[in-house]
Amino acid sequence: MNFQPPRISPVVLRLILLQLMIGLGLLFQSLFFSFSVIRQYLELSFTGVSTHYYFWQFFSAPLVHSDGLQLFFNLLTLYMFGIDLEQRWSSKGFFRYFLFCALASSLTFFLLAWAIPSMRSDTFSGSTGAILGLLIAYAVYWPERQVYFFFLFPMRMKVVVLITGLLALWYAVSSASYSLGATAHLGGLVAAGILLFATGGEPTRIGRVFDAWSAKFKTRQTKKSEVLQGATHLELEARIDVILDKISRGGMSSLSAAEKKFLRDASDRMNKTRH
Question: Which CATH superfamily is domain 10-219 in?
Answer without folding.
Answer: Rhomboid-like (1.20.1540.10)
